[in-house]
Amino acid sequence: MSDFFTMSILVATVASGIRLATPYLLAGLGETVGQRSGVLNLGVDGVMQLSAFFAYWTVLETDNLILGSFVGVGVGLVMGVIYAVITVVLQAQQGISGIGIFLFGLGFSDLMFRRQVGTPKPANQLPDVPIPLLSDIPVIGEALFEHSWLTYLAFAMVPLLAFMLRKTTFGMNIRAVGENPQAADSLGVSVGWTRTYAILIGNAMAGLAGAALVLELGIFQPNLTAGLGFIAVALVYFGAWRPAGVMSGALLYGLVAAVVLQWKAQGIIPRSASDIAAMAPAVLTIIALVVLAGRVQAPSALTRPFSRH
Amino acid sequence: MKLTRHLLRLLALLFSFAMVAAACGADEVSVDVGIEDETPSGDSDDSEASGDTLTMAIVAPSASDDLAFTQSMIDAIDALDRDIDLQVTDGTFVVDDAAAAIRGYAEDGVEVIIAHGTQFGGPLSEIAPEFPDTTFIWGTSSDTQGLDNVFAYYPAADEGGYVNGVLAAAVTQTGNIGVIGPVEAGDAVAYINGFAKGAEDSGDVNVAITYTGSFSDVALMAEAAQAHLSNDVDVLTGSSQAVVGAVGVASENGVAWFGTQANQTSLDPELVVASQVYHWEVVLEEMLALRDGGTLGGEAFEVNLENGGLEIEFNDGFELPDGARDAADAAIDGIIDGSIDTGA
Amino acid sequence: MKRLLGASIPLLAALIAFLFGAVMLLAIGASPWEGLKALLDGAFGSADRLAATAIKATPLVLVGAGITIAFRTSVVNIGGEGQIVAGALLSTSVALAVPDLPAIILVPVVLVAGLIGGAIVGAIPGALKAYASVNEILSTIMLNIVMVQLMNYLLRGPLIDPLEVEAGTRIPQTERLSDNATLPNIVPGVRLHLGVLIAVLAAIAVYVLLWRTPTGFRLRAVGHSPDAAKAAGINVKRNITTALALSGSLGGLAGAILVFGSEGQRMVTDGSSAGFTGSAGFNGIVAALFGGLHPLWTIPSSFLFGALLTGATNLQRVLQVPAPIAIAINGIVVIFVVSSGRLREKIDRMLEARAEFDDTPSTPETPAVVEGAQS
Amino acid sequence: MSMLEMRGITKRFPGVIANQDVDFDVRAGEVHTLLGENGAGKSTLMKILFGLYQPDEGEVIWQGSPATITSPSQAIEAGIGMVHQHFMLVPTLTVAENVALGLSSGRAPFTDLDAVSERIREISDQHGLSVDPSVDVWRLSVGERQRVEIMKALYRQAELLVLDEPTAVLTPQEVDDLFEILRRMTDEGRGLIFISHKLHEVMALSDRITVLRNGRVSGHTTPGETSREELAAMMVGRAVKLTPDRPPVETGDSRLEVRSLSVQGDRGTRAVDDVSFDVKGGEILGIAGVSGNGQREIAETIAGLRTPLPGSSVLLDGTDVLPMKTKQRRDLGLAYVPEERMKDGAVGDFSVSENLILVNHDTAEFTSSGLFNFDAIRRHCSELVERFAVKTPTIDTPTSSLSGGNIQKVIIARELTGNPGVLIASQPTRGVDIGSAEYIHEQLIAQRDRGTATLLISEDLDEVLGLSDRIAVVFEGRIVAIVDADDATRENIGLLMAGVVEPTG
Fold first, then answer.
1. Cβ–Cβ of A104/C286 closer than 8 Å?
2. Of the candidates A256, A288, C240, D73, which lies 20 to 30 Å from C348 by C-alpha distance?
3. How far is C200 from chain D, CA to nearest CA, in Å?
4. ipTM, interface predicted TM-score of the complex
């Protein structure tokens, strides 16, 4: 079989890894913002499934991909409002309410799919948009700059969110309420509203991640995410609550999966070992963590509801 | 005051968002809120088996509209020329859940119950003797576990696979064919092995097979297809409901696709070459006829090309190269008369 | 009176959640009343159905009780799915290796094998957390993925039923397991097997362990304050590992019970963990939290969720309502009940204030206690 | 003319009256001390001032007119600032960011941190605060963090500043610096409310003193007309002995021998450098020193919570304990009262009885066939609670709901159970009410009389002088001198603590 180290194969593998990484990245970045404000959301996977379904349905009905993306974000925002009410207003335990959201999303998207669509029908897919000039760069141009605009957006969000967290007043407030909400509150920073906005950003991005997944594939099926949202949450820990770290995690996860698939296609990995090979991204993530661990601290107030008394 | 300010900001955000969304959507948005009409099961006062209406139920591991394994059976029941009241419990892979459903139908007095999953054999061996007047139909399996009110059925999926393989070899320009599967197991294996043999028997082609390791991860399935494409593959096939992701890749890249289990032409009317379709109704009809005659079970049936339970359904929208159709027909004949070994 | 009201709030929340479910049923054109009837009938309608509910609750009780051990030690265990699979795989392998042992020996042997399998997979993230500071949320999620793939590999390779290979059907399932390993029924004529009893006993054992033994004392001390525990001479790292190992072992036991109490009489995979566990690894967490992380309350709480799950199967069977509606309702129940906690607190406080108002005001001698509590 | 007047404040909580008819006022340019034991009602009064609680009766008058303050931000806007005992700082933000939090910015959505930094430097210079605005707060020492807290208030132009036990975590040097800063602030006409129960500091700093007891005002006074003993009596409600009696005892053999101990600190520097000392049975060796000079590391290394550098040795009754884990050392007769009560000393969520058996829960006394014998535990704990006069509703009460003094009594009771051979007591009475401190001192002396070798580590020089038979002074990780109690004075020990080494007689 053909050699893995030919240019065209490497380019295809990298491109594939980037595509696989995109939904992890979007969801992981959103979760990062939420967690920096002290709110853990284990419901990411459920939000993704809901928004994936509604984005798919929209595209199926209207053929409008932009509208589909917006619907995905909108569903995310609606779920964000709900989650903010649960965790900020009612101050419920975050871990379990997230699992509640997950279950609801899993069940409701499945239900809606069966009632409204039924048999999987192909919908429009996001076209690749080569970036002028950049995509003409030999080799890396094709691997890095011939993707859908949602993929570019996901990667553009990395510096954007890093900048937001690092440099803006809002970002400063997020970091403050995630570390020491009492301190922020004592200076008149509204812990509740700051967290609410962070949750909304997080859920909107989870919604976009769901839309990205479904629009890239052009198809929906129940449990489309297959646990992707949980891995995205895990990647936030992996990325040490930094956008760039989450990006490395998502890329590691996506690229390893892409390499494994490529090796399977070329017969480098024998069929008998295909399940074992499928463990690779998970195992590598754990190994990377053992190497990196212990150097970073979670936001101190993570998972802690805030109340003054 | 502070609250109102935040609420206003929030509303503004949501509103502007809605505006943008509306602008993008223009007036194309026709959201269908209505419920699709599905024949409600309990409409007619049917609980008393009125006249010749046959009550049937199916318990299946995946969704009934999966364009694959489960749907093939539902379609088959619809195709039966009988007045049937069908109840469906789908998406229950977990054996004990399925067992509860099977037992429930039996208790309700449903006359014929289809346990559409190999793994349901265990509970069936306990339940069937408890309801000796009920017919249980179980598959895919080649034996009835010695129960005389159980019929069994299984497909010779390798046969259709072989024919698809022959066609694929004719369609490919590059000589590279890619196959995608979730986990190397079940009907998929028979189909894929038959496919590979059929392709390789018909010419100098490479068949590369990838199992992703996950039934549900559609994105991974799509990328597996991409990986094949990067290796110059120009014909794809795959098994299981998760192929829907891979079909998307095929259509995006203009690559031919072969389907199995159900007619997948609807997924891409231009690039699906042919589908191996299960026509369970062929054997179901035989079973029901036996039941009418008082035999409640005890026999196993195979669907194959010969008895018409397997059929290669061609997509007229795809223009086959010269001779391909003939080669396929020859293969079908060869399989039926036993001159071709499909490798099963 | 006050307690009654306090306790009734989660129930009220669950009720409201069910109202949501009713609305959903209406929206898809089914009668909520019929739906409720089907649900209740499916869960409690006959001795066999009651037994099915109990059997459905069994892995939830075990996983839930295990979760309480972990959470009481301040360790999160989201690895229930993987631990169930591990227990199932090891116990299955053992049963395949020595199928001819008499039942009286083989049954305990496979159950212990399940415990060990789960314990190993639990101990790994435990040790990684204790000795390498690897976040256990991450490692348990990743191990779930790893265990599913291991299951797929074993069931379609080394452990596959030779008949499947021979027939070429290659369904990824083991051969039929020895009858000697099957969990015996405990009530004649009803499909209620030993596993249910074992789960209840295990939950009680967890209660005893946590609150009646030095081992549990150490685990809880580590959970509340690792620093204080360490200063008092308690080995924090070892206890964190122990907690996750114990937690995992109960998941593993659930896995063994799922295999040997199943009507399938063999282990089979659809390539996902949920296909084998029915998501018990997640639902067990929900049941445990619903039960206030108390192992004994986990029992009724699991039974409730078990009833919802079996009832939903019936709902689908009778009304042709797609089963996912049960998952959605499940989620809503969780959300409402968790959210009601704060409300309950507020009402409690209101009632307390009222009670204080009614009593003759008095200044206790040690206001110190109160000021500490208020701040 | 008072800038702040609180008149007839009453605040009730279910089952308790936290403030009853409290009058309190602050004038511009003065330090008004609010003195009282934990739970006397000081923090309730301050929470009312900051709008966290509303009084049931009484009124708050700010700058001459009645004020309804409903939130801390309102108080801040009015010109009232607070320096909390537990710093309200975000460690991961820079000083400038911490100061700028919650302020509106002219350059939204950004905060003009350059302008903020500039202003911080101005205020720094003006008040002698020396705060670097660009440093992350987690890098700062405790004293520096406190200056940031003060900076936050000054930046917001606070006229009245509340300082809640500001010296609890400061070194003597830092306390001196702080007082100087505070003096400057009063000179400018600001008012200060000083909350503390360190009596010599109160005497040194205050212009006026108001003492609270059980929610009521038990007296208004000034340093000129009172004494430490009198203040203590006002706080506690009875006469208090501030220095314990220390009868002479016969010392025995060395029970704790520390030789050439060197320990790496958390920041990678050498926190303890070649330290050697002995403690004999029946003796209290006090370690005096400014916080952060290696005391914590010495205690933790002996207790088995830290690994020393090679070449060190620690002998317990002649046995080398360095290879042993904490548990084995404790089994050999080591007891340890950690410096941070709520972090290392007790499990807050555990009941009093659970904390009392934290160390010896697995002994045969409390277990039978693997299960706890709750009768035995109950008997044991009730007895300890009684013997150590722990004020708790029941032995099943969560420990965290007890007052600091009572929590410390629980820890002391636990550690003294079983008559330890060696006791390490770190800051045994820091932040503890006077009555409890008095009691704990008596218990430490009594234990010494029973033959225990006690290593007392304290930053409270009065405590070290009052309890110790010998005093070792540490400076920058070394022992600069070991002085007999009879030769020790506040002055010579203070000089040694500052690193001024002069041979003493």
1. no
2. D73
3. 20
4. 0.83
If asked whether residues D134 and D260 sit together in one domain, one would say no
The helix (H) or strand (E) run that includes residue D489 is none
Q: Is residue B17 part of a domain?
A: no
Our CA-based measurement puts residue A51 at a distance from the nearest CA of chain D, in whole angstroms, of 30
Domain count across chain D: 2
Q: Per the domain annotation, does D442 fall within a domain? A: yes
Peptide bond before residue B140 is cis, with ω within 30 degrees of 0: yes
Q: Are B111 and B200 found together in one domain?
A: no
Q: What's the structural domain count of chain B?
A: 2
Which of D101, D108, D111 lies at the smallest CB-CB distance from A187?
A: D101
Pair B197, B128 in one domain? no
Question: Cβ B219–A115 below 8 Å, yes or no?
Answer: no
In this structure, are B63 and B41 located in the same domain? yes
Statement to judge: residues D340 and D232 lie in one domain:
no
According to the per-residue pLDDT averaged within each range, which of B66-75, C169-178, D453-462 is highest?
D453-462
| CATH number assigned to the domain comprising residue B58 | 3.40.50.2300
Check CB contact under 8 Å for D90 and A189: no
Contacts of A300 in chain D (CB under 8 A): 91
Q: Is the pLDDT of residue C208 over 60?
A: yes
pLDDT at C348: 63
Q: What pLDDT was estimated at residue D467?
A: 94
The b/e string for A131-163 (b: 16+ C-beta within 10 A; e otherwise) is: eeeebeeeeebbbbbbbbbbbebbbebbeebbe
In chain A, which residues touch D (CB < 8 A)?
A: 167-170, 172-173, 175-176, 179-180, 182-189, 300, 308-309
pLDDT of residue B2: 54
Q: List chains adjacent to chain C, taking adjacency as at least 3 C-beta pairs closer than 8 Å.
A: A, B, D
The domains of chain A, with CATH numbers, are 2-292 (1.10.3470)
Residue D19 lies in a domain: yes
Q: Residue D341 has what DSSP assignment?
A: I
Strands (E), B1-79: 54-59
pTM for the full model?
Answer: 0.85
Instruction: Report cis status (omega within 30 of 0) of the bond before C59.
Output: no
Rg (CA), chain D: 24
* Residues D3-32, mean pLDDT to the nearest whole number: 91
Share of chain A above pLDDT 90, in %: 52
Same domain, D142 and D231: yes
- Co-location of B135 and B170 in the same domain: no
- Domain range holding D188? 2-236
For D347, name the nearest residue in chain C, comparing CA atoms only: C225
Instruction: Report how far residue B198's alpha carbon sits from residue B276's, in angstroms, rounded to the nearest whole number.
Output: 14
Range of the domain at B137: 22-156+280-303
pLDDT of residue C351: 56
Domain co-membership, B110 together with B168: no
Q: Which residue of A has its CA nearest to C76?
A: A95
C324 CB within 8 Å of a chain A CB: yes
Give the CATH number for residue D44.
Answer: 3.40.50.300
- DSSP structure string for B130-170: H-TTSEEEEES-S--TT-TTEEEEEE-HHHHHHHHHHHHHH
Residue D46 half-sphere exposure toward CB, CA atoms < 13 A: 28
Is the CB of B68 inside 8 Å of chain C's CB atoms? no
